[in-house]
Design brief:
With 242 residues, the protein is mainly alpha-helical. It folds into two domains: 75 residues, Arc Repressor Mutant, subunit A, CATH 1.10.10.10; 136 residues, Four Helix Bundle (Hemerythrin (Met), subunit A). It contains eleven helices and two strands; from the N terminus they run αααββαααααααα. A two-stranded antiparallel ribbon has the order 1-2. β1 and β2 form a beta hairpin. α4 runs antiparallel to α10 and α5 packs antiparallel against α6. It starts with 10 loop residues before the first helix and ends with a helix.
Amino acid sequence: MPIQTIEPRRLYRQIADQLRGLIQGGEFPVGSRLPPERDLALQLGVSRPSVREALIALEVEGLVEVRMGSGIYVTARDAARRVEGAETAHGPLEIIRARQLIESELAAVAAASSDASLLPDLEETLREMEADIARKVLPIRGDRNFHLRVAQASENSALLAVVTELFDERNGPLFTALGSHFEREPTWHAAVAEHRLVLQAIARHEPDAARAAMRGHLQRSHDRFADNWPAAEAERLARSPA
């Protein structure tokens, strides 16, 4: 048989495979609650974000259910469904960290730009976000337009293509599942305020401030995905005195 290309497995997929094997082997029976995320991370020797991405992958497959204020429960021994794109998707938190590295520098470049249409265009994207929030619609359109417009200021089509591809990972099954646990009106109002700080730094033509504002926005976005989901809330409740 011909030699096959070796592809490195994504870490969260390796974790998901191990947890799936434990579920299928009866270590975690249907109806049982999985150990807390922090304990799984320690036992596996990995970061909590990687564990969270693995748990979301198992939720997408229908093996576990994330319950608000309670934890993560096994719902089936075998995958109930196969979702197109889930096997090859990058981890949502991994995507945000990649975007942070790239887009922080692009914000600095935008702050040095002389493009006269940049600021009005960015203002328009924030109005789009605010209008969608008012209509109780996730403001993905304006959010996407903001980040792509900042990238366009670099006048580098390769960088724009990278930012576009990374942002559009939001449409994948893992990002959608994770977002469903925390994306609410208050988090989007916070995101608009963070975007405005980026815009203000660009308007002042301060590259360092723009870089810091974009880095801060994407870090807080990462933290919202990481901290504001039901399993994390369950752990906080478990540590709190009665």
